[in-house]
User: Fold this.
Amino acid sequence: MGNRGRFGKYGEHKRIGRLRDVGIRPGFNSHRGSLKEPHGIARYNQKVSQKARITIRPAIPSDMHYVAGLSRKVFQQYGPYEDILPQWLESGFTVTFMAMLEKKPVGFVMLGMPGQRWEFQGTCELLAIAVEPARQRLGAADILLREILKTATELLVERIVLHTAAQNLPGKKLFEKHGFVPAGIKKAFYPKGQDALMMCKDLFGKGPPKEI
Assistant:
């Protein structure tokens, strides 16, 4: 995204339909219409950054209000993501983690299901990652990305793609730090017309991606 805190890819309204059309992969929340308490939440609470006291846990139903509020704060210039992202979270076809600082949320990351729209099988989309602007120097974005990449690997996802605003140099730098490489420009990608840079990461070392 264009400013600090505006990282990731946040597609069109009809993308919620595409998420519902794809099959459910083991390890993802598989319910429709509402969220359930995730299993194993205690182990995520143990993932702590000693410096920043950041913990990571799976999203729960009550987090939808926070996701909507932070999306309004950091993604508003790109479209109505305060409505879109909570819908994706509620759909059950995403893996979403919350970054917590002293038991208060400071950010989230959202990974979509593997989908048939991609040329490569086993491809997931990083739908969103956002951190509170006032909490950006605590390493929360790095912790969230590491957790979602680890989870995707455990789920045998082969490739992750994402979209970030073409002018979002801080976001591009963050993603490159975690092994994503540019794979093309999508014109007028966002609901309000901005271009997006597509980036990809192969999780099992299959070489650099070609443009999709």
Summary: The helical segments are 15-21, 41-45, 63-75, 81-91, 140-154, 169-177. Confidence is low (pLDDT under 50) at residues 1-14, 16-42, 207-212. The first strand starts at residue 6 and ends at 7. Residues 6-202 form a domain with the Aminopeptidase fold (CATH 3.40.630.30).
